[in-house]
Amino acid sequence: MAYVATRGGARAIDQSERLYRAELGPIDAARVDEIRRALPMLIDRVMGEASLYEPDLAALALAQSGGDIYEAVLLLRAWRTTQPRLTIAEPVLQDQLFTHRRISAAFKDITGGQILGPSLDYAHRLLATDVLQGQPYVPAPVEPAATPAPARQPSLAAWQKVQGLVADPARADVAPGDIPDLTREPLLFPAQRAHTLQSLARADTGGMLALGYAAMRGYGNAHPTVNELRLAEAEVRVCHPRGTVFSAGRVKVSQAEVTAKGKSGLLELGFCATLGWNEVKVISGATLDLNAPGAAKGSPVEEEFVLYHTEPVEASGFCIHFKLPHYVTFQSSLDALRGAKQTTAPHQPEKVPA
Amino acid sequence: MPQKALPMFDQDGDRAQPFDHARLLDILARADADRLAALAEDVLPSLGPVEVVQSRTGLVMLPMRDTAQGTDFHLGEVLVAEAHIRATGTEGYGMVVGRDLNRAMAMAVVDAAASLGQTPQIRAFLHREAAEQAAADTARLREVEATRVDMETF
């Protein structure tokens, strides 16, 4: 492979970018605000994959990219590098989450109950075409219960561990500053669990669904049942210069555990969490986490296969780079092809007309 | 200590008692931006000359604990606004999720002023904001409670 400098494309490149942006039109604060308010699920997906929580910036990135998620994620990942890392917050614990939705498909009578929260799971999927005829769609208001739900819900996994249903491996406390961090060090295999879970948290939703679905259909070792699915808000707990720990505010997070009966006779758990509310992503991710141990090299649930192929910026960047000029690479392939033809020509007369 | 009957949404009990520092910071970080800015304007003269040590946006890495194996890992980064000020005999600090530098600075100013004494004005502000925050949470949790499944097995 070789590179060669060429010229002559500058005007075309300039006008090409203008053509793309002209089709999107002017972007103002009102457009960004409307995107943020109208598309919270998309905003959440982009923030999760960008690994940067700021809804206004995510909406701006979507406005600039015209809704191309990979471009939006790239914009945010790039912008993130302009910001200093101020601190590392205290670890978020499951039973401290301000919980909006918490369900289990495996256990009917979980402590704390089944709380559906905001969901379309049981909704008819009907397109409200009347809107296009000029009749606005106005959703029916929620009829609030007389008493509030508890803000916090107990951990099902903790109960399962106490009951001896799930293995409870010994854990050592790690200072927040010592938690392995993929933004500062490379992903090496076999991956540390902290790297695996961080990588899943940042991963491409679609890529994770494809591989997770492959595992669910039988290309994995374990069939998942959702142990616990949670949509919640986490407090960002930081430290005042005088040492007081306080919450600087809340961010939306989602997390899933999936379970299957393991060879040990216990239930095994797979786990995934991400910034923002994104159920497909965390259920797929937890399924992949459950299936990874012992997976064969190159199988769609093997850790290296999963983590390398679901990194959104690397994967989309590598895919679209094939559009960029490869004239020299391709020329050398052509040369080799012609050379091979010439060497073999005397022995084998060509049957196909050139 | 006997439990006192609390007003419906006010979880801070005795109105004469000062707020502890963690509670004060929690309330300030979630306080209404305009009312917080107005209070900061009011208490600023009481601080005398103020040195701004820091006023910037930046990233806070948010770790989470995995429930399967108990591993702490990084969920992602949160953009925050941070302000740190020094005044005679004290300092003030503000950090809020988002990128509103004014909100962080107003929080730092009120934090510094409160450290010199929680005046009736500051306490009244904290009580009102705490009540509004609790009311917002309660309203949301009543909606959440409406989605609880009342399962009946046949």
Structure description:
The complex is a heterodimer of chains A (354) and B (154). Chain A has 354 residues and is α+β, with helices and mostly antiparallel strands. Chain A is built from 12 helices and 6 strands. Helices cover 39% and strands 15% of the residues of chain A. Chain A has a 4-stranded antiparallel β-sheet. In chain A, helix 2 (29-38) packs across helix 4 and helix 3 (40-50) packs across helix 4 (55-65). Chain B is of the alpha+beta class and 154 residues long. Chain B has one domain (21-134): Enolase-like, domain 1 (2-Layer Sandwich). Chain B is 40% helix and 26% strand. In chain B, strands 1-2-3 form a 3-stranded antiparallel β-sheet. The model of chain B is unreliable at 1-11 (pLDDT under 50). The interface between A and B is large, with 89 and 56 residues.
SSE inventory with pairings:
The complex is a heterodimer of chains A (354) and B (154).
Chain A: H1 10-24, H2 29-38, H3 40-50, E1 52-53, H4 55-65, H5 69-80, E2 85-88, E3 98-103, H6 156-162, H7 193-202, H8 205-219, E4 225-239, E5 245-261, E6 267-275, H9 279-291, H10 303-309, H11 312-321, H12 327-344
Antiparallel strand pairs in A: 3-4, 4-5, 5-6
Chain B: H1 21-30, H2 33-43, E1 50-65, E2 72-87, E3 90-97, H3 101-115, H4 120-145
Antiparallel strand pairs in B: 1-2, 2-3
Helix pairs in contact in B: 1-3, 1-4, 2-3
